[in-house]
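Quick check before the chapter quiz. The format below is the same one you will see on the exam, so make sure you can read both the input and the output lines.
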Amino acid sequence: MPLHPPGDKLVDLPTAVARISDGALLALGGGLSARLPMALVRELVRQGRRDLHLIGSAHSIDVDLLVAASAVRRCEESYVGFEQDLGLAPAYRRAAEAGTIEVAESCCVTVLAQLRATEMGLPFLPVRGVKGSDLRRLHPEYAEVTCPFTGEVLVAVPAVRPDAALIHAPIGDRYGNLHLDQPYVLDERFAPASRQVIATVERVVSTGEVTGAGVTIPAHYVAAVAEAPFGAHPTSCYPDYAYDRPHLAEYVEAAQAGGEELASYLKTYVYGVDEPGYRELLGPDRLAALHSWSRSTEDWKGLFG
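Here is the expected output.
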């Protein structure tokens, strides 16, 4: 695994994203509507990246927005959508049906096995969960292997090494040590399996504060770290803030409509602003309200009414 030498890795967001080239295989951290690396995603769109190959567990607006911006060539996820709350991922579904992206649905445990194979220096690992499913048809690179002890035929999945893992953390230091609150989803495995980690953090803090909270991803996996308050918005970054359901609903409505409405969303919230401008558009009152989720049950319910 590539190791990144000690040093000051604090950069601004555009510089961090400039490390990612067209056609890169990107591992997206977080999952569903929690701790998605949205500031990094928006900056990828601003910088006009194309032909990206995405891999992750179960995701929502991060994948859908990249697809809406024509940045994606291939997507390997176990699920892309907004769950029972807001339904399917509109841009992703449209692109999948039209064949403008390659959809290679996978499952979380299979992706985990591929990452672990890379960590262990193995060319593949066997899995059982996808046996008998149609996932084999989507992955001609999978093979079969016979267990020398039991004779059972298993599916052999190749090791995967992402070009970069994009991870958002609540806190980190300027050297790249990151603390994540659970659940880690696949982030803890993305880091050692990827060629580099590009991270955003809510706050850059001292090394002592990170070690006091617990280092989840150590600095030697991290190539660059950028401070990005509300860098997961409109998804959550617990315990700091809840997900912004009205904003997610605004995006989903625009993505469902497509055309000018989707273009207007992208112009307003992505192309037309940098991240400080994005936060300014959201407004201090709304951001403060997202911070208030833990004060009481009534405050929490009020955010999602």
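If your answer matched, good. Residues 129-158 form one domain.
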